[in-house]
Design a protein that fits this description.
Elements lengths: L2 H8 L6 H41 L9 H47 L13 H9 L9 H4 L12 H5 L1 H17 L1
Length: 184
């Protein structure tokens, strides 16, 4: 008899909600009880299978008082252990090789498919709002960069009016300088 047929026989749904809730609770408890029995049965099956395997592959050693016989048993056990270790090493090497191949194939798949970049949304946010979002509300930073700039006053050079007035004299001075560079 299956699990669901057992549950269906125990409780048939009624029209009232309270009775439905009771039926649901009974059904749940029955399912849990049956599942617990199955788990216990599974555990006993595993133990029995383990004992059968050990009886088949590992017979009881015949221990006698003869030291030569004991030495022979020890040699057989060491040979069996060595054989098992070699098999284990070979299996581990195969598993590592398979794992490496799987990783390589995964990388190839990612390369072939490519990484899909999500569509970026345009966000209109001021620099102040961005810094507040990053740093939190505790840190208030003002991004008014113009306020941080140095104010440079434009200095106008006022030349004396005397120098501007006599332009011939300036030309003669420049001619004298030119002669100094040419003679040197």
């Amino acid at each position: 008899m299956s699990l669901w047929s057992t549950v269906a026989l125990k409780c048939k749904p009624q029209q009232h909600t309270n009775k439905k809730q009771k039926c649901n609770n009974i059904n749940k408890s029955l399912i849990l009880q049956i599942a617990a029995k199955w788990l216990e049965q599974e555990k006993t099956d595993i133990v029995a299978a383990k004992e059968a395997y050990l009886a088949e592959n590992c017979p009881e050693p015949e221990l006698s008082s003869d030291t030569a016989a004991l030495m022979e048993i020890c040699k057989k056990l060491h040979q069996a252990i060595d054989k098992i270790d070699e098999e284990r090493y070979d299996i581990e090497a195969k598993v590592q090789k398979a794992d490496k191949e799987i990783e390589d194939l995964k990388l190839k798949v990612v390369d072939l498919v490519g990484v899909k970049k999500p569509a970026l949304k345009k966000v209109r946010m001021s620099a102040d709002a961005m810094l507040k979002a990053l740093l939190g509300s505790k840190h208030t930073v003002n991004m008014d960069l113009r306020a941080n700039l140095k104010q440079v006053k434009k200095e106008t050079k006022e030349e004396p009016t005397e120098a501007i007035g006599d332009w011939r004299k300036n030309i003669e001075d420049k001619a004298d300088r030119k002669k100094m560079f040419e003679s040197a």
